[in-house]
């Protein structure tokens, strides 16, 4: 549940921050009448994300075991790709997020302002689709469907609460540092999802080595124990791991984490137009 809470919190806060910045800029430029258009876009994005999640959950029902495993493994690997792209995208664009959104608002606010609904739908919908895909992968990895959903919903609720406090000017958060460290944590979590996706493809017969184990510590870490469940729920750790799973984890986590931390380290110090400060200034301007 912890991993899914982090996913919901991270993705939800990104989407919430976009909405807060858009609302603040509309208020600052005396275009409050366009805020309902903004919420129409947000509602559309939420509806599409929920429908996408339902399709992923119920679509494969009735298929053979091998087909379900093949679909699950493919979606898990796709989720890892999306999360990886997301954390690097945020690391690269955090410094200009506020100015980019303002430019989009200025281009979309003409006429009836429905272009603003499209901007909001795309910004929020991207996070929603990523969350739905990653949740499905996490649910398959843990064998649970309720706990990942509860964890993600709690994370989304916390993100909404943080967004409200940011909008009201009550909360001051170093968003740059928050996104840096949660991004690093998500890379480690994504490594576990990738490993489990490889296992699914092995069970589907699409990849070899299902019975070639790199290690088996099931006696020391029983999957049914509280600590085994904790490791499974947070890191998608499997006490019986094949060589292909272990190799995929190492080849993903180590270089990606190194490149991610180096990207953040090389980023110039964020001035007043930075991600965290931009949010604070835009909210204050409202």
Features:
286 residues; mainly alpha; two-stranded antiparallel sheet; 10 helices; elongated; disordered C terminus
What does this structure look like?
The protein is mainly alpha-helical and 286 residues long. It is 76% helix and 2% strand. It contains 10 helices and 2 strands. The protein has helices at residues 2-28, 35-58, 65-93, 97-108, 114-142, 146-168, 175-203, 226-235, 243-266, 275-285; strands at residues 213-216, 240-242. Strands 1-2 form a two-stranded antiparallel sheet. Helix 3 runs parallel beside helix 9 (243-266). The radius of gyration is 20 Å and the shape is elongated. The protein starts with a helix and ends with a helix. 43% of the residues are buried. The model is unreliable at 269-286 (pLDDT under 50).
Q: Topology of this protein?
A:
Layout: H1 2-28, H2 35-58, H3 65-93, H4 97-108, H5 114-142, H6 146-168, H7 175-203, E1 213-216, H8 226-235, E2 240-242, H9 243-266, H10 275-285
Antiparallel strand pairs: 1-2
Strand content: under 5%
Note poorly predicted spans.
269-286
Return the average pLDDT rounded to an integer.
78
What are the secondary-structure elements, in order, as H or E?
HHHHHHHEHEHH
Distance between the termini: 36 Å
Kindly state the number of beta strands.
2
